[in-house]
Amino acid sequence: MNRLRWRVFVLVLLALAAGGILVANLLFGSSGLVWPGAPQGPLEQAILLELRLPRVLAAFAAGGLLGLAGALIQVLTRNPLADPYILGISGGAATGALLAILFGLPLWLQHLSSSLSALAALLLVIALAHGEGAWTRHRLLLTGVVLAAALGALITLLLALAPETALRGMLFWLMGDLASAPAPWFALIGLLALTLLALPWARDLNILTRGEASALALGVAVPALRWGAYLIAAAATALAVITAGSIGFVGLLAPHLARLLVGADHRLALPGAILLGGSLVMLADLLARTLIAPQQLPAGALLALIGAPLFLTLLYREARR
Amino acid sequence: MNGALLTVEHLRLSQGRRRLLDALDMEVKAGECWALLGRNGAGKTTLLHTLASIRPVEAGSIRLLGRHLAEWRARERAQCLGLLTQDASQGFEETVLEAALAGRHPHLGRWASEGIEDERIALKALHDCGLAGFERRAVQSLSGGEHRRLALATLLTQDPHLLLLDEPLNHLDLQWQWCMLHQLRGLSDNGRGIVMSLHDPNLALRFCTHALLLDGMGGWRSGSVSEVITPAALQQAYGMAMRLIEDDEGRWVVPDTRKMRAGDEAMRPRPP
Prior knowledge:
The structure holds 2 protein chains of 2 kinds.
Chain A: H1 2-27, H2 42-76, H3 89-102, H4 107-129, H5 135-161, H6 164-175, H7 184-198, H8 202-208, H9 212-217, H10 222-244, H11 250-262, H12 266-290, H13 299-320
Helix pairs in contact in A: 1-2, 1-12, 2-7, 2-10, 2-11, 2-12, 3-4, 3-5, 3-6, 3-10, 4-5, 4-10, 7-10, 11-12, 12-13
Chain B: E1 4-15, E2 18-29, E3 33-37, H1 44-51, E4 59-64, E5 67-68, H2 74-80, E6 81-84, H3 96-101, H4 116-128, H5 144-158, E7 162-165, H6 174-189, E8 193-197, H7 201-207, E9 210-214, E10 220-224, H8 225-228, H9 231-238, E11 242-247, E12 250-255, H10 257-261
Parallel strand pairs in B: 3-8, 3-9, 6-7, 7-8
Antiparallel strand pairs in B: 1-2, 1-4, 4-5, 9-10, 11-12
Helix pairs in contact in B: 4-5
């Protein structure tokens, strides 16, 4: 039980770290330091409340949603290295969004298009991979990988066909960008709702990682749990993609880091993955806004640059253990 | 607990187009320990999975404590019926204690978590399976036999009325084979029911009360171990000459090497 106490303590530390990064995001930015204690003009106040606050909340929500989706998909595929990208969900969302940008649709239709195509991609993967027995999870992964590759090709085609005017927006969207994040409340409420939906099933998810037969024998309602987890993962991915464009590596890295820090029990690992995902995206966005200020970088590209070596290090350490 | 734990009527099993089992009638009562015998691919695992409600019933009926299997809610069923799968695959990076505690899952409500009592049950099961002191070890660091004993400990932690075990002795050394069978028999003597697939008819003779022998082509024989496990029946099921050795310590069926040497082609062990 001491171990449990330690893990809960680590989880609290993660929450504090997320809070710290959030505050740092408020203080620093491309227009320099804004110190809340100092006398403020209307400009500073506007920067703080209307620019930085919504943006950092959007970053946290997007990262948290991707962390949650990644953790769920890793259970569904019983593969600790899976993420929403591997199953083609993000590819679907990106294709929908890019098509909408290409046709010059208004923002809300872009969002609708990307979330609908994320769901469509997910349903397609599940329908194609549907089968019985031990085959399923390999088929799920393979189907997802192939679909993601096909969607990647489609995205390249769309980019090749796009007019110059739309191209920049599309590229930034693809690289993951929080500058055009819509009101963060939608994503934050979504994150809260999906987390509250998923958490009561955390112990069932633990059992599901032991395989379908064992889970059924231990009284887990496997089909219902699977569908629920798929849908939560898809909704979370779609929401994250609407909020921040296509941000890679969080869905892979956050759950993996969470398991290393608080253990494999999803009652702790799910909140851990959400906090870590949120922190990672906030951190990437902080760097994106300040590294070569006043110019801004795409947060998604930065995250991948940080995430890839970090992930490889973890993988290497694990292989040697 | 006096009545039938499990009642099987006219059960039919197929795998693809192959008919494995036809019109099986079987009743497992509290206190009985059943050995499930038959050659590879005869349908032992398929039968156990069907009894555990992991495969749908093709034809016939299975009742657990008088109620049809399909009428049970998954969680309540798992409190009464447990299954040891043949290759128990473990979850992500668990510790040995966490893996054993998974057995408490059906006994805990949605919002509950494992308490002192659950942990006590798990620790006792780990102790009984020779894994005391392993609680904090990573599951991945265990040997094949230790893995198997951990899976058995998880089933003991689940503590169902009826235990279905698919080759519980896989990977176990001689001492642990006897030790686990001894414990399982102890459970059935205390009113649990047990059905387990075994490959050694002599262990079945020694530790089980009943046996079900499948021929893999629809046929089956069931009854007390001494009725079912006879040289003639095994000869038919496994295609090998067998003979019975009996003394005041017990009965053994062994391959009949004399008949095999005697040149009777039909009596040599051969691929089916």
